[in-house]
Amino acid sequence: MSPSSPVARVTGATVIRGRTEVLRDLDLTLTSGELLTVVGPSGAGKSTLLSLLAGLIAPHRGTVHRPEDDGGSTRTVFQDPHLLPWRTVAENVRLGLEYRANGGSGLGHAKDSDAQVAELLTALGIQDLAARLPEELSGGQAQRVAIARAVAASPTLLLLDEPFSALDPLTRADTQHWLRRVHEQRGLTTVLVTHDLAEAARLGDRVAVLRTGGGITIFDASDGAAELESELLARFAEDVAAEDDVVTVPPRRTRREFLTIAGASALLALPVAAGALSRTEPAQAQGSDAAATAAPVKRDTLRIGYLPITDAAPLLLAHDTGEFERRGIDTPPPTLFRGWAPLIEALQAGSVDIVHLLMPTAMQLRYEAKVPVRVLAWNHVNGSAVTVAPDVDDIADLAGTTFAVPGWYSIHNVVFQQLLRDAGLTAVINQKPDAAAGTVQLVVLAPADMPAALGAGSVSGYIVAEPFCAVAEVQGVGRILRFTGDVWREHACCVTVVREDLLTETPDLAQRAADAVVAAQLGILSDRAGAARRLSEGDYLPQAPAAIEKVLVEHDDHGYVEAGAVRHPEWNQSRIGFQPYAYPSYTEELVKQLKLTEIDASKAWLDAVDPAAVHADLVAVDVNNRAIEASGGLDAFGATATRIEEVAP
User: Fold this and answer.
1) Neighbours of 128 (CB within 10 A)
2) Which of 180, 196, 223, 607 is most open to solvent, judged by the fewest CB atoms within 10 Å of its CB?
3) Residue 377 and residue 233 share a domain
4) Whole domain around residue 616: which residue ranges?
């Protein structure tokens, strides 16, 4: 990429919050290697701009071209450094490498990654902090470590949301100088949001001034910081005079009108106590003086994070149908994430509280990364497929090609490699595939990118959650080669995950949340067509309604049997099922299968994991069982208390 190449581009972007246009017809291009500072009055859209660049929200109008569209990556650092207190500085920075493994770049062997961390800390001038714990760091030191952790992931674009605002003036000035040196040394493209005009003028190659109501003016910093600061002060004076120039628009029906963004892209973060998420609301008036005399009603708030896949349906419909509300839980509009890595990071950052997550990833988080997460329930069973180019007739035809999985720690990767082994093929990573040698190269792609990659011929196929497999069918770019539920009968894919503190600090809230999700699953089973309609009309899933209906409602079992996508019709399975009971036998078998699966990261942590002991530790078993009983028991879901895992590639 040349120094002047665009890293990201925002074109005609308008973002609406409530009835206010926070950003209006905004145009901005970021070039490789530049440091852009962003200033503006409160409410002018600074954090909203970062959310657009981070991919956390989509504009109501206009387009955003992000590094991820070209195979790059974005990392965000916020005011709170969010360091894990039980890890040393070196171990915290190492997390940047660990989560690159989830995104496809790979962690490699522990010794190699430790050497990379040591090299990075030395290059950034903070090697003397390597063995310290976060509690032993000053504010400036902690923020440097947070930035180093983001830099470790080698991001194409680094976003900084007021990272120095809590520092004293001397520490702030020193850290600003350090940041500028790191930016130039590492060849970063950086966007820094700040309220400090002097900081913006001193650090930026260009300064973007946002004004209330959506305007933007870009200043070149080449004339010098002092002159630029004077210009910025003048610009702010104009903005204050024009404070009433706020455009309002008519209400718009959408479930994702404005998504929560605070901390959602932090690389990793401390778990936030669930009790801190509660809020008190006044009682509804029942008489002329009722509001003044009634005691406040305490309600709990949980924020939902999800990927736009049918795996998320129980969480989304528990919100949409009021199952959470009926149990005294407020759920703001769910936050949509483009890929698994940012969803994981948001959960850890405390910006979302309850998510659907790949079960193998939940294991990796708890047992390798030592991030305390727990599983409340299975979200669904089956719901994924091997989708290939129309000219691929058999798994053997994939030899010598590149194939996409959504993440290394996924049931998709596990099942696909089972199919490869059964066909006599070998999975390879970061290695050119060879048809004669029978190798298939695996790469990680975000689910949303898979149909386009298949249509363009850059991959021979992919294995992923619905409705992205149905999307390929509807668009005519691919066909179903095999349903994953036909390989591993009624396997779990995504599970409902929370941070462990939700269970320890507010167990009643955790139970009510699980009850709501399980009730929503039962509701889906009773009205699949209605569920598909709500997911489409509620603007939760952006795919064509025909694709969503194909997954939830229409399942031509006979046609798929003839085509070979279903080889076990006697299993009598739906394309996706909704069964919340977490089977211990599945958890145990999954650990065993992970040990046989190639992953672009060290699997040493799996050696210390006892397959038989994982279930009781990872799954909140009592919560799961009580939630199922509250919805009518296992019989209501056609399930039994035990089963034998059936895996038949």
Assistant:
1) 11
2) 607
3) no
4) 301-381+491-562+569-637
The answer to whether residues 430 and 441 belong to one domain is yes
The answer to whether 74 touches 379, Cβ cutoff 8 Å, is no
| Separation in Å, CA 314 to CA 317, 414, 488, 522 | 5, 24, 22, 9
Q: Give the pLDDT score at 98.
A: 65
The per-residue pLDDT for 267 is: 26
CATH number at 607 reads 3.40.190.10
Give me the number of domains the chain comprises.
Answer: 3
pLDDT (tens digit, 9 = 90+) per residue, 584-625?
A: 999 999 999 999 999 987 888 999 999 999 999 999 999 999
In a domain, 500, yes or no: yes
- Which segments in the chain show pLDDT lower than 70? 1-5, 18-19, 98-112, 166, 168-171, 213-214, 222-299, 556
Any domain includes 256: no
Neighbour count for residue 173 (Cβ, 10 Å): 16
Between CA 226 and CA 232 the distance in angstroms is 10
If asked whether residues 499 and 624 sit together in one domain, one would say yes
Q: Which of 207, 241, 275 is the last residue of a domain?
A: 241
On whether both 434 and 466 belong to a single domain, the answer is yes
Confidence at residue 229, expressed as pLDDT on a 0 to 100 scale:
54
Q: Find the distance separating the first CA and the last CA of the chain, reported in whole Å.
A: 43
| Beta-bridge partners for 17 | 20
For residues 437 and 426, the answer to whether their CB atoms sit within 8 Å is yes
What integer pLDDT is reported at residue 102 of this predicted model?
45
CA distance 447 to 494: 14
Query: What is the Cα Rg of the chain in Å?
Result: 25
Token pair recorded at residue 329? 């839980």
Q: Is residue 166 domain-resident? A: yes
Instruction: Enter the tokens of residue 509.
Output: 């809230």
Over residues 283-300, the pLDDT tens digits come to 222 232 323 333 333 469
The structure tokens listed for 462 are 């992919």
From CA 266, how far away is CA 399, in angstroms rounded? Answer: 39
**Alpha-carbon distance 254 to 251, whole Å?**
9
Token pair, residue 235, equals 């610009």
Rounded CA separation 469/248 (Å): 40
**Cβ(171)–Cβ(22) under 8 Å?**
no
Rounded CA-CA distance 163/144 in Å is 9
Q: Could you tell me if 448 and 523 lie in one domain?
A: no
Enter the pTM of the model. Answer: 0.64
Q: Of 166, 210, 198, 187, nearest to 52 (Cα)?
A: 210
What is the token pair recorded at 227? 């002159």
Q: How far is C-alpha 307 from the chain's CA centre?
A: 7
| Distance (Å, whole) CA 187 – CA 116 | 17
Q: Are residues 395 and 519 in the same domain?
A: no
Query: Is 22:48 a contact under the CB 8 Å cutoff?
Result: yes
